[in-house]
């Protein structure tokens, strides 16, 4: 992942494979990883991060199932899509909408009002469109 630097929080309650997955997704959304970008092998990334390679394999496999990575024995892990690739598959959209509903419910349950939730969502989404435009 040429210029993308992953950092892990080993004391976090978020599993390490999920942290890797989330950081790759953010890098794709922010334009730091474009379609065709090669990621390090599972063994290399595991060695770089000082973790078990099975943990990296789990993260890469999750990203593959989500359609973000293509994994080939010869070429390794390569970013399969970027935001400019067009709209997501309908199945992804439906599943993502369910997760979004839960996330928004958490915000409301914690006392955030709907206008604040919507403003935060809009600001966060707009941020992805501005990365790499300098």
Structural commentary:
This protein has 134 residues and is mainly alpha-helical. It folds into two domains: 67 residues, Orthogonal Bundle (Arc Repressor Mutant, subunit A), CATH 1.10.10; 44 residues. It contains five helices and two strands. The chain has a two-stranded antiparallel sheet with strand order 1-2. A hairpin with a 3-residue loop joins strand 1 and strand 2. The longest helix is centred in the last third of the chain and has 20 residues.
Features:
134 residues, Arc Repressor Mutant, subunit A, single chain, two-stranded antiparallel sheet, 5 helices
Remind me, CATH topology of the largest domain? Arc Repressor Mutant, subunit A
Briefly, what CATH class of the largest domain? Mainly Alpha
Helix content: 40-55%
* CATH homologous superfamily classification of the largest domain: Winged helix-like DNA-binding domain superfamily/Winged helix DNA-binding domain
What is the rounded distance between the termini? 21 Å
Question: How many beta-strand runs?
Answer: 2
Secondary-structure-derived class: mainly alpha
Task: Give the low-confidence spans.
Answer: none
Rg estimate, integer Å: 16 Å
Strand content: 5-15%
């Amino acid at each position: 992942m040429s210029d993308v630097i992953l950092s892990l929080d080993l004391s976090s309650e978020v599993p390490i494979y999920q942290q890797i997955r989330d950081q790759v997704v953010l890098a794709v959304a922010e334009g730091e990883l474009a379609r065709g970008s090669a990621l390090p092998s599972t063994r290399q990334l595991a060695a770089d991060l000082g973790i078990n390679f099975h943990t990296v394999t789990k993260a890469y496999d999750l990203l593959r199932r989500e359609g973000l990575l293509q994994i080939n024995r010869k070429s390794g892990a390569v970013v399969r899509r970027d935001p400019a690739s067009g709209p997501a598959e309908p199945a992804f959209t439906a599943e993502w909408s369910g997760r979004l509903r839960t996330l928004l419910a958490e915000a409301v349950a914690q006392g955030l009002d709907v206008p604040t939730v919507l403003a935060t969502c809009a600001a966060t989404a707009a941020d992805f469109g501005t990365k790499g435009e300098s």
